[in-house]
Write a structure and sequence with these properties.
340 residues, alpha/beta, D-Maltodextrin-Binding Protein, domain 2, 6-stranded mixed β-sheet, globular, binds (2S)-2-hydroxy-2-methyl-3-oxobutanoic acid
Length: 340
C-alpha cells in the first residue's frame, strides 16, 4: 500500500512537470543578462523590457536578471563579449563599441561620419549589412537576436564650445577603450584618454577629464551639466547600436518554442529601445535637446562647413579602419546609406 501511494505521488509530480514544460528541468533558475547602464537609460529600459516580455510569454520558464555596470566582468566592458562566449554571461544587450575588440567588423558603426541620420542607422541594422553582421557575431560565438540603440554620440566638455577641430586642441577627453576612438580624437587634435565607463563617471565628477562623448540620453539621465559639462556639440559623428545576444549553449538548451519567444521578445524590446533612445532627439521632437538647453547648457549645432572640417580631419582614420573592417562590408554599408 505504502509503495502504491509513493508511486502515485511520484507520477503526479512527473505529470505536473511535464505539463509545465518538457525541458523545464534543464533550465536555470536565473539567466544573467549583462548591460553597461541600467534603467532609466534607454539601454537599460530595453533590457528590462526583454526580461519582462520573456517572463510573461514563457509563463516564467525563462527568468532573466539584469546585471548592469558590466559587473559580471568587473566593469570592464571590453571583456563582455569574451565572457558571453565563455558562458560567464548568459545573455546581454551590448554596444557594438564594447564588442569591437573581439569583432573587428563592429567598428563599422564607429567609422567617423558614416551615418548622418537615424535613417542611415536603420539602413544598416535593418538591411543586408545587419544580416551580415549577425552572421559574423554568430561565427564569433554568440547568438544574435535583435537590435536596439545607444544613440548618436555627441561630444561635451567643460572648457569651451567646439565648432572646429582647432577648438579641441589640448582638451582631455575620455574615450571608450576601443582603438578607433583614440585614432579619431588624435586626428581631431584633442588629447584622448581611454577609460571604462566605470572610471569615466568619477573622472568627470572630479574634473580629471575635460569632456567625453556619449548619447544625449546618457547626458540627461546623469545630469552632466551639473558635472561641468556645459558645452555640447551635436555633430552625429558616430552612433552605437545595441545587440541582444545569447550564449550558444544556453540557446541550445531552450525548446524551439522558447527560442521563438525569446527572439520575438528581443525584437519587440529592441523596437521599444530604439523608440526611447530617439525620443526628444528628432527633427519632429527636439524636446530633450530643449530640456538640456534650459539648464544653461550651450548647445552647438554644426554648419555643413564646420562639419566638413571634422570629416576632412578624420578621412585618414576612416580609410585605415575601412581596410581593417573589410572594404567589402564598408562598401555595402555606404551603398545602403546612399540608397536609404
Ligand atoms: O562607455 C560608454 O561610453 C558607453 C556607456 O556609452 C558604452 O558602453 C559604449
Amino acid at each position: 500500500m505504502q509503495f502504491f501511494k509513493t508511486m502515485m505521488v511520484a507520477s503526479a509530480a512527473v505529470a505536473i512537470l511535464g505539463a509545465t514544460s518538457s525541458m523545464a528541468e534543464d533550465y536555470k533558475s536565473e539567466y544573467r543578462v549583462s548591460t553597461v547602464v541600467p534603467a532609466p537609460f534607454p539601454w537599460g529600459l530595453a533590457a528590462d523590457k526583454w526580461a519582462e516580455l520573456t517572463k510573461e510569454r514563457t509563463n516564467g520558464r525563462i527568468n532573466m536578471k539584469i546585471y548592469p555596470g558590466v559587473q559580471l566582468v568587473q566593469g570592464d566592458q571590453t571583456r563582455e563579449f569574451t565572457a558571453i562566449r565563455q558562458g560567464v554571461i548568459d545573455m546581454a544587450v551590448g554596444s557594438t563599441i564594447n564588442w569591437s575588440p573581439q569583432i573587428t567588423e563592429l567598428n563599422l558603426f564607429s567609422l567617423p561620419f558614416l551615418m548622418p541620420d537615424y535613417a542611415a542607422i536603420d539602413a544598416l541594422t535593418q538591411g543586408p549589412v545587419g544580416t551580415k553582421i549577425f552572421e559574423i557575431v554568430e561565427k564569433n560565438g554568440a547568438v544574435p537576436l535583435a537590435w536596439a540603440e545607444n544613440g548618436f554620440r555627441e561630444v561635451t566638455n567643460s572648457v569651451r564650445p567646439i565648432r572646429m577641430p582647432a577648438d579641441m586642441k589640448g582638451l582631455k577627453l575620455r574615450v571608450v577603450g576601443s582603438p578607433i576612438f583614440s585614432d579619431m580624437f588624435d586626428a581631431f587634435g584633442a588629447n584622448p584618454t581611454q577609460m571604462s565607463w566605470a572610471d569615466a563617471q568619477p573622472a568627470l565628477t572630479t574634473g580629471a577629464v575635460d569632456g567625453q562623448e556619449n548619447p544625449l540620453t546618457i547626458y540627461s539621465v546623469l545630469n552632466m551639466q551639473d558635472l561641468g559639462q556645459k558645452n555640447v556639440t551635436l555633430w552625429h559623428y558616430v552612433a552605437d547600436p545595441l545587440i541582444f545576444v545569447v550564449n550558444p549553449k544556453v540557446w541550445d538548451s531552450f525548446s524551439p518554442e522558447d527560442q521563438k519567444i525569446l527572439r520575438q521578445a528581443a525584437i519587440d524590446a529592441g523596437a521599444y529601445g530604439v523608440m526611447v533612445a530617439r525620443k526628444g532627439l528628432t527633427k519632429d521632437d527636439e524636446s530633450l535637446i530643449k530640456q538640456i538647453e534650459s539648464h544653461g547648457v550651450d548647445i552647438v549645432t554644426l554648419s555643413d562647413q564646420e562639419r566638413q572640417a571634422f570629416v576632412d580631419a578624420s578621412r585618414d582614420v576612416y580609410k585605415k579602419w575601412k581596410e581593417k573592417i573589410g572594404a567589402d562590408l564598408v562598401d555595402m554599408a555606404e551603398k545602403s546609406i546612399a540608397n536609404r
